[in-house]
User: Which sequence fits this backbone?
């Protein structure tokens, strides 16, 4: 064995034994068995250093390759071939580089994700905090999980005030709308679907505002109920306009009702006259039967029974008549549309007889009630029937037939048809029928059908007309059974 | 009220008015028959005994005035008391011109209605009596021979027996016999009575 570089210059005098004094190895190539190796050398002075070599040696196999070269001066030359070490180290280095790269990439990904999270958080927060409407999220335990700052604009109360006092929100609802709110709230929770309600709130400064409230359940993964998300929009301006429009419509419909009542005065007087005549006859007959030597008590009893019956009938006419003259209340009630038709026919009986019109009545049995204004709906029915009568005045009386029918349309609601057999509506006029002041009658004001249309629309329904295939026209009317909750 | 055997026919489409009218009319001892429409009344055979019709003007189908015209057309002379809920002058004038007894506006009081019914029944009784008398005179008239009718015609014209004899080319004695037979057959006591009977025969269009 031959050392390529001179090792002599590397030889140092040993210092004190100890790790710190372990000599620095030096490297050089050695030729061993005809092969060139890179090796490390350590020159040691004395044996006491030997144990220190232990960690320097890789393993037993390496140690076997070690050559201890002893010199006469007591130096050891320890040689460690590095071929294995180099490979190992290269591999380790490569792995390290790889791992490092991977780490760097992971860090980059994580940084991006973090950045995105921050960005998303910022974005959602901005969206939430800068919503124009008052948004909140109520937990199933009725605590506010989120309340948008816009609540202050609408209610005068700040978001922290709402969050601090979960009852505040219910407290600011107008007392008259409290029931509506409760129904809505429970309804929305029970139905687990989005619902809309309109109600009034009292602001912190005492002002009253109209709010359109939409709430929908928040459902987490697997459909877990996480509370209610609600959106409150200040609709005061719209509501005021709406109420003004409604008010105008009410006044107008009242005026036309009174006009109609005026036109019907003779018929109505007759309708009232009939029971009065019967009452008067029965009363006078009863008096005579009582004055008999042997009073005819059976007859008297029967007469009294009929007097009561006819007074009820007269009362009914008066009620219907009063309904035509009163301004409608804003209260809606559950209305059976069949009853509306029957009541109106009762009022028009005399008018129908005078005009020689025969009525074919096909009312659906067990029609569900709908939310509506009975008086206004009656006005629509009255107008449509009177229109039909007028459309048939050119016909000889025995051919004047009016068909009224109601039916339940599953998804849409209640449909009513008013079918006459007059001369129909000229196609050019069909589209203009409901325009205000559009009339084909010399004395018409052109408001009747317009008001009918607006009344039906106010009930969330539809009114339209078509010409029949054979003769005359039919007015169709569709009224929904379920409507948006409003006051 | 005296017209006990009379029947009042009540025609009104309103059931309660119809029943109440019937009750009121029954309370004075009259019989009633009620009808819900003009057609129902027409479907019934014309009344035999005295009576009247209480008729609502406004009814579905044939109205009161149309029924009146139809009855007149069928030569049914039962007097009619109209009742109506409307003070329609035109209508009432038409009804009265067509021979209605009265035209009452609902609600009326019992005296008005019962008074009108009484008048109507009396009118019917009078009319029916007159009709009976007419047919009797007619019957008697038909028993006369052609010669007797010629004599009757000239007696009614106020001719003396001598004049009649001259006109017919018969003996005055023969005319006297004819005249006596005419008086006997017509069941009259005087020339004045004979003249009245002859007028009735003429008015019946024979």
Assistant:
């Amino acid at each position: 064995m031959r050392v390529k570089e001179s090792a002599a210059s590397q030889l140092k005098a040993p210092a004190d034994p100890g790790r710190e004094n372990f000599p620095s190895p030096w490297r050089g190539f050695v030729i061993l068995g005809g092969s060139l190796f890179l090796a490390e050398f350590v020159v040691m002075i004395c044996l006491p250093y030997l144990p220190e070599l232990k960690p320097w040696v890789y393993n037993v196999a390496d140690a076997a390759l070690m050559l201890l070269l002893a010199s006469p001066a007591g130096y050891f030359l320890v040689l460690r071939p590095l071929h294995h070490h180099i490979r190992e180290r290269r591999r380790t280095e490569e792995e390290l580089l790889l791992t490092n790269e991977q780490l760097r990439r992971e860090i980059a990904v994580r940084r991006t994700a973090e950045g995105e999270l921050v960005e998303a958080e910022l974005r959602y927060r901005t969206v939430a905090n800068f919503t124009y409407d008052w948004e909140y999220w109520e937990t199933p335990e009725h605590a506010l999980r989120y309340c948008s700052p816009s609540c202050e604009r609408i209610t005068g109360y700040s978001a922290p005030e709402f969050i601090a006092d979960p009852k505040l929100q219910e407290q600011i609802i107008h007392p008259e709308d409290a029931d509506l709110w409760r129904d809505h709230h429970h309804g929305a929770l029970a139905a687990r679907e989005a619902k809309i309600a309109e109600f009034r709130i009292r602001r912190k400064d005492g002002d009253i505002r109209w709010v359109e409230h939409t709430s929908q359940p928040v459902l987490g993964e697997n459909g877990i109920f996480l509370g209610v998300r609600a959106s409150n929009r200040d609709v005061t301006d719209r509501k005021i306009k709406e109420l003004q429009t409604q008010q105008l419509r009410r006044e107008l419909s009242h005026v036309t009702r009174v006009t109609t009542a005026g036109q019907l005065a003779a018929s109505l007087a007759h309708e009232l006259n009939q029971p009065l005549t019967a009452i008067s006859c029965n009363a006078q007959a009863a008096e005579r039967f009582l004055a008999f030597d042997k009073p005819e008590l059976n007859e008297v009893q029967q007469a009294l029974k009929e007097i009561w019956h006819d007074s009820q009938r007269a009362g009914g006419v008066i009620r219907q008549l009063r309904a035509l003259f009163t301004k409608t209340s804003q209260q809606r009630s559950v209305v059976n549309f069949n009853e509306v038709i029957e009541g109106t026919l009762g009022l028009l009986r005399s008018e129908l007889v005078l005009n020689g019109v025969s009525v074919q009545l096909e009312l659906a049995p067990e029609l569900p009630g709908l939310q509506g204004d009975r008086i206004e709906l009656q006005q629509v029915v009255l107008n449509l029937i009177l229109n039909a009568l007028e459309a048939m005045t050119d016909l000889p009386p025995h051919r004047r037939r009016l068909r009224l029918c109601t039916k339940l349309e599953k998804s849409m609601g209640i449909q009513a048809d008013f079918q006459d057999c007059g001369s129909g509506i000229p196609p050019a006029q069909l589209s203009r029928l409901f325009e205000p002041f559009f009339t084909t009658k010399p004395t018409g004001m052109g408001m009747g059908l317009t008001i009918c249309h607006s009344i039906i629309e106010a009930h969330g329904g539809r009114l339209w007309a078509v010409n029949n295939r054979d003769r005359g026209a039919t007015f169709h009317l569709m009224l929904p059974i379920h409507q948006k909750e409003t006051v | 009220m005296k017209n006990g055997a009379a029947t009042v026919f009540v025609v009104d489409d309103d059931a309660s008015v119809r029943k109440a009218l019937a009750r009121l009319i029954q309370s004075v001892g009259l019989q009633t028959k009620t009808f819900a429409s003009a057609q129902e009344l027409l479907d019934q055979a014309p009344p035999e005994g005295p009576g009247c019709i209480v008729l609502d003007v406004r009814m579905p189908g044939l109205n009161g005035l149309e029924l009146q015209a139809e009855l007149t057309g069928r030569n049914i002379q039962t007097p009619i008391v109209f009742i109506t809920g409307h003070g329609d002058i035109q209508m009432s004038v038409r009804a009265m011109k067509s021979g209605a007894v009265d035209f009452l506006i609902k609600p009326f009081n019992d005296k008005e209605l019962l008074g009108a019914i009484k008048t109507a029944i009396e009118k019917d009784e009078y009319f029916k009596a007159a009709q009976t008398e007419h047919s009797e005179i007619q019957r008697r008239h038909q028993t006369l021979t052609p010669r007797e009718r010629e004599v009757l015609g000239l007696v009614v014209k106020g001719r003396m027996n001598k004049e009649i004899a001259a006109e017919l080319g018969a003996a005055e004695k023969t005319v006297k016999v004819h005249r006596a037979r005419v008086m006997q057959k017509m069941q009259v006591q005087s020339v004045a009575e004979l003249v009245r009977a002859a007028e009735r025969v003429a008015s019946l269009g024979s």
The first strand of chain A starts at residue 2 and ends at 3. The domain at 242-479 of chain A is CATH 3.30.565.10 (Heat Shock Protein 90).
